[in-house]
Amino acid sequence: MTSTSSPFPLFRLPRLVLSEVFDSTTPDEIVQISLCSKRAARIIKYTPSKWKNKTSLHLFFYGDEPSRIQYFNYPLLFVSEFSENENPKHLENVKVGNSIALMDKRTIYCKNTLEVIKQVVEHSMDCFNCEVSSFVISRLATSSEIEWVLQWMSSRNTVFTYCWLDCNQDAIEGLNNFKNILFNSTAIESRSNNLVTSSMAIPTESLIIIRGSWIEKPHLNYMNCTMLNLEGASFTCGDINEILKEWHRGELLSHLKCGFFGTTNQDFEQLLEGIMFQMFIEKKEYKMSESDVYPIYGGFNIEREDGVVGTVTNYSDGFQNTFALMVWPDSTN
Amino acid sequence: MSVEPEVPIVQVEEVRENPVLYKIISSDNHVFTISEHAVKLSKTLWDLITNLGLTAENALDNPIPVENVNGKNMETIVQFCERHKYDEEEPEYTNYIREFVLPEWDRQLLSIDNEELFQLILATNYLDIQKLMDYCCRVIGDMAKDKTPEELRIIYGIPTDAEDDALERSASDSPGPSG
Prior knowledge:
The complex is a heterodimer of chains A (333) and B (179).
Chain A: H1 15-23, H2 27-34, H3 38-46, E1 57-61, E2 67-71, E3 74-81, E4 92-96, E5 99-104, E6 107-110, H4 113-128, E7 132-137, H5 143-155, E8 159-160, E9 162-165, H6 169-172, E10 182-183, E11 187-190, E12 206-209, E13 227-235, H7 237-248, E14 258-263, H8 268-271, E15 278-289, E16 292-303, E17 309-314, E18 321-327
Parallel strand pairs in A: 1-7, 3-6, 7-9, 8-10, 9-11, 11-12, 12-13, 13-14
Antiparallel strand pairs in A: 1-2, 2-3, 4-5, 5-6, 14-18, 15-16, 16-17, 17-18
Chain B: E1 21-25, E2 31-35, H1 36-39, H2 43-52, E3 64-65, H3 71-84, H4 104-109, H5 114-127, H6 130-142, H7 149-155, H8 161-173
Parallel strand pairs in B: 1-3
Antiparallel strand pairs in B: 1-2
C-alpha cells in the first residue's frame, strides 16, 4: 500500500480523474467522503460518476433498529436514537445538512432521529443525484414516524417505485391525506390485520396484500392494478362470482392482468353461476414477464363483451383457498 | 527535433519479440526505450507517433519529448506498459468493483508515496493510459475502505469546514496581483 507520510490530495485531481476515482469506490465510501466537509459534499454533488442517476436509493424505516439509507446493495448510513449508554468517546462529530450528530463508522446517533433521517436522505440524494425510489416501513415504526415519512414522500415531486408498508391499523390511519403519492411500477404491500381502507387510495401497478382478511369487495374499486395479489383475503365464492360478473361487464378491475383472490371455500358451481364459460383441462402458462411465469392446470375461460378473455383457475394450496383470474394476452404476445 | 540524451538510456525490460522500439524523453531528460506494443497502451503517445510518421526505421533516431512527465513517473509508466502490453481486454466491472483484485505485481509497482502517486496519476491522465488509470484509481479508492469521515480527512487531506472558511478568509484578505 501507499505510504501514509502525506495525505493523498484527492480534491486536487482534475475533475475527470476524480470522477474515475469515484467510479473505483463504492457508494458508501463516496458518502463517507461527502461527510468530511461542506466543500467535499459540493464536489461530490457536481462530479460525474457511474453511480449517479440510478434511482436505486432505498430507505428502510424501522421502529426498533437503526433506520437505513441504501444505494443498490450498499448500506450508506444508519440512523439510531442516541442512548445515554452510548460511549461518546468512540463517536466522532458529523454534520449532515444542518444537523450535527455523533457517528460511529456508518451509524449516526442522535436525539432528533426524524430530522436527521431527513437530512441523511436529502444528503444521499444530493450525492447520487437521484430520488429515493423505494421505502420499506416496518410495523414497529410509530404513527408519527410513518406520517412523517409519508409527509416527506408527499412533498417530493416524483413517482416512487416501491413501498413496503408493514404496519398496524393505528399507524396507517390517515393515509387518505397522501393520495398524491404516486408509484410507477411495482408494489405497495400492506400487512395489516385489521380493517383499513385508506391505503388503497394510493395508485399502483401492483398491489400485494398479505394477511388481508379485512378486505371486502368494495375495496376492489380502489385496486385497479395490473397485478393484484389478495391471497389472504376471505372472499366467498359468491363474492368472486360477483367480481367476475362485474369484470365481465368491464365495471371492475378493468386494468387487471393477473389477480389472486383468497376465498373461504371452493364452490365452483357458485363461483361460475350465471357466467358463460368454456372449460379446458390442458396445462398452460401465463407470463407476467420473462421471469414471472404462472402455470395453469386447467380452468375456465370467460370472454368479456369487448372480446378480452380471462382464465379463472384454482390456485389453492394446502393452507389457503385461492382463485386466480388471468387476462389474455399475457406478455408472450 | 533531435534531443541529445544527458543520462544513459534506461532499458526497462528486454524486448523479446517486437523489433520496433521508440525513444521517449522525460521532462528531466531521462531517455526511455519502449516497444511498439507497450507504447500503444498510451493513446497520447501512439497518436503522436502516428502523426509524426515514425516508423521502425526512423523511430530510434527521433526521440519523443514528453514535457509533462518526469523520469521517475515515466519509468513506472514504461514498466507498466511493458508488463501489460500483451494483456487481453479486461471485462468491465461496474457494480461489483470489489470483485476485481489488483494484481500483486501492480500493487507493488503502485506502492509509492502519495505525492508520487498523485504525480503518476496526472501523468497517466496526460498520456491517456486507461489501464494504469484504472489501477491507480483503484489504489486511491481502496484508501477509503472502512474509513470514517475523520480518517478520510487525514487520508485525502480534506480540510474541515472551519479550515475551508479560514482559507477563504485569508484568500480574500490577501492583496491581489496589483497590491
